[in-house]
Amino acid sequence: MNRFVAGICAVLVTGLLGVVAPVGAVDSITAKSGLEKAVAESKKWKSDAELAAVGTSKGKADGTSFYWNYDFQSKKTHTCARVIILATGKVTTQDFGNCTFSKLIATTFVDSPAAVAGAKAGGFQAGEEININLTHRRDRNLTPSRECWSVSSFEHDFDKNNAVMRGWCVDPKNGKFVTALAGEGGK
Question: One digit per residue, pLDDT tens: the chain, 187 residues?
Fold first, then answer.
């Protein structure tokens, strides 16, 4: 009788798990895993869309997140948009209208887990959630300004005295640590 009840419980639990979290369900993705879809969506928004930034504020210590933002610019219309890719596969596009342009970034870059690994090699300590952003950065510790993955954790990198978020710049071409960021503008 106990074996029978245990068997029924096993079947029920297995069935429930299949409904709640299907085999192969994804709860987090890397920055590159959504890039192709984001670029395709940006072309639906504006045919001349170009990538200006990639990022998340809900990153995990392994360099993944449940969502990634991909920011695009259109020179023809002088407008900007953000394509948001969720780990579930859902895609949303937000048209920001007229905007201030930033320097563009390359669509070829090391993936977010390599960026976090590079930051850790430079001394970065992950908190519960981390910011992982690929942009062209201006910072007093970067001379000249440059494209970099900026990785930071509120718990460890927020400077309360100066009200700035410090970060860790990682080269997007090779994943190597470049410098600790001051969190203050540069040239």
Answer: 333 333 333 333 233 233 333 445 579 999 999 999 999 999 999 999 999 999 999 999 999 999 999 999 999 999 999 999 999 999 999 999 999 999 999 999 999 999 999 999 999 999 899 999 999 999 999 988 999 999 999 988 888 888 888 999 999 999 999 999 998 876 5
Which of 110, 178, 94 has its CA nearest to residue 144? 178
- Relative to beta strand 158-159, strand 164-165 is antiparallel
- Specify whether 94 is located in the same domain as 116: no
Letter string b/e over residues 96-130, b meaning 16 or more CB atoms within 10 A of that residue's CB: eeeeeeeebbeeebbbbbbbbbbbbeeebebbeeb
Q: Are residues 92 and 128 in the same domain?
A: no
This prediction's pTM: 0.84
Question: What's the structural domain count of the chain?
Answer: 2
Domain-located, residue 22: no
- Domain interval for residue 38: 32-56+63-98
